[in-house]
Amino acid sequence: MACRVQYSIHNSLRLFSSYPSSLNFLSTARPHKIRFRNSKYFSISRGALYCTCNTAEPFVLTTPLYYVNAPPHMGSAYTTIAADAIARFQRLLGKKVVFITGTDEHGEKIANAAAGNGLSPIKHCDSVSQAYGALWRELDISYDKFIRTTNPNHEAIVKEFYSRVLANGDIYRADYEGLYCVNCEEYKDEKELLENKCCPVHLKPCLHRKEDNYFFALSKYQKQLEEILEENPDFVQPSYRLHEVQGWVKNGLRDFSISRASVDWGIPVPSDAKQTIYVWFDALLGYISALSEEEEQPSLQNAISSGWPASLHLIGKDILRFHAVYWPAMLMSAGVSLPRKVFGHGFLTKDGLKMGKSLGNTLEPTDLVHRFGPDAVRYFFLKEVEFGNDGDYSEERFINIVNANLANTIGNLLNRTLGLSRKNCQSTIAVDSAIAAEGNALKDAVEKLVEKARQHYENLELSSACAAVLEIGSAGNVYIDEKAPWSLFKQGESGFTTASKDLIIVLEAMRIVAIALSPITPSLSLKIYTQLGYSEDQFSSITWSETRWGGLKQGHVTAPPKPVFSRIDLETEPTNTTDDTKKTSKKKDKQKTQKVVEA
Ligand SMILES: Nc1ncnc2c1ncn2[C@@H]1O[C@H](COP(=O)(O)OP(=O)(O)OP(=O)(O)O)[C@@H](O)[C@H]1O
Ligand SMILES: [Zn+2]
C-alpha cells in the first residue's frame, strides 16, 4: 500500500502532512529525485507524493559491533547470519528494514592487538574491519549499514551523547579500584570470578586496577529499570535471559566508570582530553550513529530521526548486561527512547567452551563457506542450534544435515519432479495449481506449515521455522512416492491428468518452499525459483504473501532440471581437518542429536 503525502512548492518542496518524523524531509531536490530518510524514492502524481515503502516505521535490526581485536570467526558469523535471516524475513513482509552491523574499534584490547601486529591502531582496525565486510559478502549478508566506531560522525555523536548525560547530572568523577578483564573490557565483581581471579569467559586472571575516572550514575536508574523489565516482558528475550537480567537489577546496580585514564586509543572525554571514553559507552552509540547519513551534519537528533529506536538488538549472551542494563539506563539519562527488544542467543562452543577470539578456539567460517557454500553454513547453524541455546559444531553432523535436508529432501524432490514434468508434460503447467489442488491434502498441509513457519520467524524461532519448511519438503516426498506419477503416466490418457496434477501440486509446494526458506538460504531459493521458470527479478521482488497457494498458473513453463544443491561427499570432499579432529568429531556424532548445552 502506498502512502500519500501532500506537498507544495515554494523555493523548496515542503512536507505538510502529519507524516511520521522518521521520514523527515531531506533536501530540495527536484521532484523526481525526492527522497526521504528511510524510504525509497517517492514518485509524484497529481500533486501528491507516493512513498514506495509499505509501512511508516522501519524495522531497525542490529548485530553487535564486533571487536576488532582479531578477525571474525564462526561465532561472530552466527549472530550476523541470524540477523540476516530476520532482516530478509521482515523485508518479505514488506517492511522497510535497516540492518546495521559494524565494528567496535577503540580500547585497550585493540591498542594491544595493533601493537602486537606492529601496526598503528587505525591500520590494524582498517584491516580487521575489512575482513568482517569481506566475510559478510561471502555469507550473503544483506546489511544496510556498516558502522565503524572510528568514523568521525560516530565520534561527534558519542561526544554529544556524553554531554547530554553530563548535563542531566549523571556523570561524576571518582577513584575506582577493582579487578579488570581486558578481554571483556569490564571491571568484575570478585564473586563472579573463578580461581586465581580468572574471568569465567576468558579464563585469564583479571588485573588489579586503580584509576581516577568519570562515572555514570547507573544506580539512579534501578527503579526505572525494574519497572521496564516488569512491564515489558518482551524487552529481553528469551524469557530465561529476562529473568537473568531481572536478577542482576534486583541485586543492586553499581555506578560504572565510563572513562579510562590509561587508554589513549579512544574518543577523548569532552572537556578532559587526558581521559578517553570507555569503549562500551562509545560502542553502544554505534547503533544510533549508524543511522546518520554520511553527508549530513552528525547529530543525535538527525540520527535518531532516521529510524531510532531499534526494533531488535541481536546479541550473544556474553554482552547481555551491557545491552539490557547499561544501555537502557544511558538512553534514559540522555532522553532517548529505548530499543524495543534485546535478544541474547547462546554460544557456539568447542569442547564445551565458548568459541572466541580471546581463547583462540575458533572455527574458521571462510573455510566452511569455501568448502560448502554460504547456504549450507547458514542453514546448518540456524537449523541445528536452537536460537537462544548453546550448540556444539561437528563437521560430520554438518555434512549429514545439509545432505539430508537440502540435497535430498528439497533438491532431489525438485529435480525428479521437474524431470518427470519435462519428460511427460513438456515442462508446462497444464492447469492452475489452485485448481489442480482443490481438496488436496498436501495443499492443506503446506498451508498449515507455511503459516507455522511465518509465526516461528516472527518469534525469532529460526530453527523451528527451518523445520516447518523442511516438513513441506518431506510431505512432498511422501506424496510423490505414494502417488507414483511415473506409473500413472504409463497408463496413457486416463492416468495422465491425475499424474500431471500431482506434479503441479508438488512443484507449487516447492515454489512455496523457495520463498519460505529464502531468509535462511537465499542462493538456494533463487536457484529453485529459476528452475521453476521465474526470473531473478521476480525472485528479488517476492513477498511473503506469495507463499499463498496458487502461484503456478496454467501455461507457465519451468526450466530444464539441474541439481540445485550438490551433495557433499565425505570421501572426496577436500578437507583441511586432520585425521585426529575427524576422529573426535565422529566420536561426538555417535550422539544422534546435537549436543545442546545451556551454560
Ligand atoms: N562462540 C560464540 N557463539 C555465538 N556468538 C558469538 C560467539 N563468539 C562471539 N559471538 C558473537 O560476537 C559477539 C561478541 O563479539 P566480540 O567481537 O567480542 O567476539 P568474541 O570472539 O566473543 O571476542 P572475545 O573472545 O575476545 O571475547 C557476541 O555477543 C556474539 O554476538
Ligand atoms: Zn573476560
Automatic annotation (TrEMBL):
Domain Methionyl-tRNA synthetase anticodon-binding, chain residue ranges per copy: 434-571
Pfam family, any one: Anticodon_3
Residue span, Methionyl/Leucyl tRNA synthetase domain: 191-418
Domain of life: Eukaryota
Region of interest called Disordered, as start-end residue ranges on this chain: 555-599
Enzyme nomenclature, EC number: 6.1.1.10
Domain Aminoacyl-tRNA synthetase class Ia, residue spans: 54-109
Keyword Nucleotide-binding attached: yes
GO biological process annotation, one example: methionyl-tRNA aminoacylation
Stretches that traverse the bilayer: none
Reaction it catalyzes: tRNA(Met) + L-methionine + ATP = L-methionyl-tRNA(Met) + AMP + diphosphate
InterPro entries, A to Z: aa-tRNA-synth_Ia, Anticodon_Met, Met-tRNA_synth, Met-tRNA_synth_2, Methionyl/Leucyl_tRNA_Synth, MetRS_core
UniProt keyword terms in alphabetical order: Aminoacyl-tRNA synthetase, ATP-binding, Ligase, Nucleotide-binding, Protein biosynthesis
One Gene Ontology cellular component annotation held by this UniProt entry: chloroplast stroma
GO MF terms, alphabetically ordered: ATP binding; methionine-tRNA ligase activity
Protein family per UniProt: Belongs to the class-I aminoacyl-tRNA synthetase family.
Protein name, per record: methionine--tRNA ligase
Organism, as annotated: Salvia splendens
Source taxonomy: Eukaryota, Viridiplantae, Streptophyta, Embryophyta, Tracheophyta
